[in-house]
Amino acid sequence: MGVISIDTKRHLKSALKQLGFDKPRKAQIIPMNTLDNGQDAIIIAATGSGKQVIYETVGLAHSDKLTIVIEPLLALIYNQVQTLQAHDIPADYIDMTRSKEDITKILNKVRKGKLNFLYVTPERLQNHAFIEAMQHSDIFMVVVDECHSITEWGYTFRDAYLHIGDFINKLKHKPVICACSATISADSLNTIRDSLHMDKPAVLRSDVRRDNLILLKKDVTCNKKTLEERLEFRIKKLCKTIDKYHKDGSVLIFAQTTTYVDALYNILEEIYPGDVTRYHSQIKSERRKKQLLFDFLQDKRKIMIATSAFSMGIDVPDIELVVHFNAPINMTDYIQQIGRAGRDGRKAHCVFFYDRNGDDDAISNSFIKKAKKQSSKAAKVIKAKLSQVHNFIYSDNCMVSDILEYQGQHENKTCKRCTVCAQKRRNSK
Predict the structure, then answer these.
(1) Which residue among 35, 284, 342, 376 sits deepest, i.e. has the most Cβ atoms within 10 Å of its Cβ?
(2) What is the DSSP code (8-state) at residue 356?
């Protein structure tokens, strides 16, 4: 299939302009043409590279049909639907905050061809009424955004990801399937392709390197006897980091558990009054959670403390600092989370806290125990992923090179700025 210049495809150009863009980035042209020509595609591109614009442009260019976008998190859904609606594009979502009446209205719109984009989580695809409505709808494309979730979550706590392909098979006509992510590990491609029942997909990989991100590892080991004292020490390090790198942009702090998020929120709210918010799955009321999210998205609060539930796809352009208060549970989470930084192209710092006294290991072990209750396979998966994080922490390689290697992009050039590169430079003098 030959690549057609986007300038000759007026419907794509027109759709792009409707989304507020004059022209596509170079890395967007081939994926747009591939999907527009009806070919399935797996798109791997850096965070902030505009993957969302690719499938939105193509879906909008086929506005007489429906594009279903499957997102892992409600935060992502709200963010994207809000953006499309701001451009007067018929887009909506179905989640647990919508009333039965709302859902009925949305599904009726879909049946009548009055909706261009419909956003859902994978769990919605197992709803009988939803399946039936989709079987009577004209669907052009199914997008699985953040498709690494199939391998990262499908075998542990969200098996709905393993049944997306079953939903696609139930549709009257096979739609174009678009799977995209910034963090597909080299050994996950075949699993994603087979799970989604993709038909000879084009694998479109662009450079995932982000040169404006400065990656730092910080040893926050403290030899105090009590956990409380050690946490106090770590929080002091956190405040020093915020004061050093936070200027006029936003700050994103990741903690591994909801308990840590709440504790940090209570402490930091006193230090930075009126500037701190939080986000995690245990916050009561979806509406409340939505409001906390929008406070950050709309720049009303500058410091967000969150679990990994905030790690994907959120587009806040001016995040200048990402801090991992605890070591993440897997490399994919880490890459997704640092990918939130520097989306305005400016320099941004990503600081990874780790300890040698086992406090983070204790959190990791609790995840393994939970997984064991589900299945021994789930526990093995988590253990293997934690091992990759551990190797990354203590690696003597350039941090950027290690990340690119994990994503299947071999890179000999070092970043010269990360903690490891800086240390080697100092040692050579």
Answers:
(1) 35
(2) S
Query: What integer pLDDT is reported at residue 6 of this predicted model?
Result: 45
In a domain, 200, yes or no: yes
Q: Are 312 and 227 in contact (CB under 8 A)?
A: no
- Ranges of beta strands (E only) in 36-163 are 41-44, 66-70, 91-93, 117-120, 139-145
As beta bridge partners, residue 251 has 303, 321
What DSSP line would sit under 13-61, residue for residue? HHHHHHTT-SS--HHHHHHHHHHHTT--EEEE--TTS-HHHHHHHHHHH
Give the pLDDT score at 317: 78
Residue with the two structure tokens 């200048």: 320
pLDDT at site 380: 83
Match 């075949």 to its residue by tokens. 190
Query: Mean pLDDT in the chain?
Result: 88
Final residue belonging to a domain, choices 205, 237, 266: 205
Tell whether 118 and 244 lie within a shared domain.
Answer: no
Q: Residue 191, SS3?
A: helix
CA angle 63/67/71 to nearest 5° reads 145
pLDDT confidence of 378, banded at 50, 70, 90?
Answer: confident
The full DSSP string for 287-347 is HHHHHHHHHHHTTS-SEEEE-GGG-SS---TTEEEEEESS--SSHHHHHHHHTTTTTTSS-
For residues 99 and 240, state if they share a domain: no
Alpha carbon distance 377, 398 (integer Å): 32
Give the span between the Cα atoms of 225 and 233, in whole angstroms.
12
Q: Tell me, what's the pLDDT at 5?
A: 45
pLDDT band of 344, cuts 50, 70, 90: confident
DSSP 285: -
Task: State the pLDDT at residue 132.
Answer: 94
pLDDT confidence of residue 293:
78
**220 & 148 share domain:** no
Task: Identify the CATH number of the domain in which residue 284 sits.
Answer: 3.40.50.300
pTM value is 0.72
Domain count, the chain: 2
- Does residue 166 lie in a domain region? yes
The range of the structural domain enclosing residue 22 comes to: 6-205
pLDDT (0 to 100) of residue 412: 79
